[in-house]
């Protein structure tokens, strides 16, 4: 399977330090960064990240 780029998860520094759910960002979705163009694509929170990676791969393969 061809590599398309990277997936990044993010949250607040305070949440990383405390682990307290009150300190986390609600509804933040992972982002996909295209390795060729640097294009950033926000995923979603309704499905597991693997779903969004599969969708991105399908679009990635039709673009190239």
Q: Overview of this structure, please?
A:
The protein is α+β, with helices and mostly antiparallel strands and about 60 residues long. The chain has one domain (about 5-60). The protein has helices spanning about 15-20, 50-64, and strands at about 5-10, 30-35, 40. A 3-stranded antiparallel β-sheet has the order 1-2-3, with no helix packed on it. It is built from 2 helices and 3 strands.
Helices and strands in order, then pairings?
Layout: E1 5-8, H1 13-18, E2 31-34, E3 40-42, H2 49-63
Antiparallel strand pairs: 1-2, 2-3
Core attributes:
64 residues; 3 strands; elongated; three-stranded antiparallel beta sheet; single chain; alpha+beta
Helix-strand makeup class? alpha+beta
Uncertain residue ranges: none
What share of the residues lie within helices? 25-40%
Shape summary: elongated
Q: Spell the H/E element sequence.
A: EHEEH
How big a fraction of the residues is strand?
Answer: 15-25%
The Rg value, from CA coordinates, equals 14 Å
Strand order of the largest sheet: 1-2-3
Q: The biggest beta sheet, please?
A: 3 strands, antiparallel
Task: State mean pLDDT (0 to 100 scale).
Answer: 92
Distance between the termini: 14 Å
With helices defined by DSSP (H or I, 4 residues minimum), what is the helix count? 2
Number of strands: 3
Overview in brief:
Helix content is 33%, strand content 17%. It has 64 residues and is an alpha+beta fold.
């Amino acid at each position: 399977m061809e590599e398309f780029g990277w997936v990044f998860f993010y949250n607040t520094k305070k949440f990383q330090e405390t682990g307290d759910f009150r300190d986390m960002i609600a509804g933040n979705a992972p982002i996909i960064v295209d390795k060729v163009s640097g294009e950033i694509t926000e995923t979603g929170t309704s499905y597991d990240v693997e779903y969004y990676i599969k969708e991105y791969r399908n679009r990635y393969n039709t673009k190239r």
